[in-house]
Design goal:
The protein is mainly β. It is built from four helices and 26 strands. A hairpin with a 3-residue loop joins strand 23 and strand 24.
């Protein structure tokens, strides 16, 4: 048994010695040194490369769109990496097109706002966003096509607040400018507009978006206080100052009516009232009785 084991070990030693007698990249078969095909090993050159066997060796080359530091390399001397044709300016994109790198290649696309002209293969043509989408700016703006873009020009009373490609919304002028109607009116926002509703005694004279000014009722209607009073205008109103012997009985904006004059009262055991007016004696004075 010991002799048998010894012979087996000796046989392996001879085979090992015989194999070691072949050069690098060779293997012993049937007592001869023959080439060893390193490319039979899966992914010998790594991803994106092709293996080429040679006598006693091999070399790797990169697939199209990839490169290594040296043209021919081995698995221990290099690796294939993607070529960025866009950065190295080796792409064939026509003028006006944008180069986009891909793994192992590249593609030519149109910039934003342009589309590929497939009719004559002339590259990129402008997209008319206004025709493509008539509602792109909504109903409160006019769409204006630009080269590679578009803008929404808002109608009066609307805004897109600096974003020229968004739809326009109503401007609340009352919030935007609290003094737009002044202090003598109330601002009432409308869709796309606003109106100033004047306080009593003020007017904007038909221009509903202007500030309200005082109405001079005395000039507007010279007879507003009648003939028995003087009209005094003041901001937001007026007063009728009655002549002596006339009164508007607490309503300072009404006309003055005939009152009681001194000569209508005659002394007789004190004071007595004229029979021509509705009056009564009170505390020895002639008073008008309403």
């Amino acid at each position: 048994m010991d002799l048998k084991c010894t012979l087996i070990v000796f046989g392996f030693f001879l085979l090992s010695s015989e194999s070691r007698g072949c050069g690098v990249g060779l293997k012993r078969e049937k007592g001869k040194c023959v080439d060893e095909d390193e490319c039979e090993t899966l992914n010998r050159c790594g991803e994106n490369a092709q293996c080429f066997n040679t006598q006693g060796s091999y070399y790797c080359t990169c697939h199209k769109g990839f490169q290594s530091k040296t043209p021919n390399f081995t698995a221990t001397a290099g690796q294939c990496v993607d070529i960025n044709e866009c950065l190295e300016k080796t792409s064939a994109c026509s003028d006006g097109m944008v180069c986009v790198n891909t793994i192992g290649s590249y593609k030519c696309t149109c910039p934003e706002g342009f589309d590929l002209d497939t009719r004559l293969d002339l590259g990129c043509e402008d997209i008319d966003e206004c025709k493509k989408d008539p509602d792109v700016c909504g109903t409160n703006a006019e769409c204006n096509n630009q080269e590679g873009s578009f803008i929404c020009e808002c109608v009066s009373g609307y805004s897109n607040y600096g974003n020229s490609q968004s739809k326009c919304t109503d401007i609340d002028e009352c919030k935007k400018d609290p003094d737009v109607c002044g202090t003598n009116a109330e601002c009432n926002n409308q869709e796309g507009s606003f109106i100033c509703e004047c306080n009593p005694g003020y007017s904007n004279y038909g221009n509903s978006q202007s500030k309200c000014t005082d109405i001079d009722e005395c000039n507007k209607d010279p007879d507003v206080c009648g003939t028995n009073a003087v009209c005094r205008n003041h901001p937001g109103g007026y007063t009728c100052e009655c002549d002596p012997g006339y009164s508007n009985y607490g309503n300072s904006q009404s006309k003055c009516l005939g009152g009681i004059s001194d000569n209508q009262c005659k002394a007789f055991n004190g004071f007595m009232c004229s029979k021509q007016i509705n009056a009564q004696i009170s505390r020895k004075r002639c008073q008008y009785h309403i």
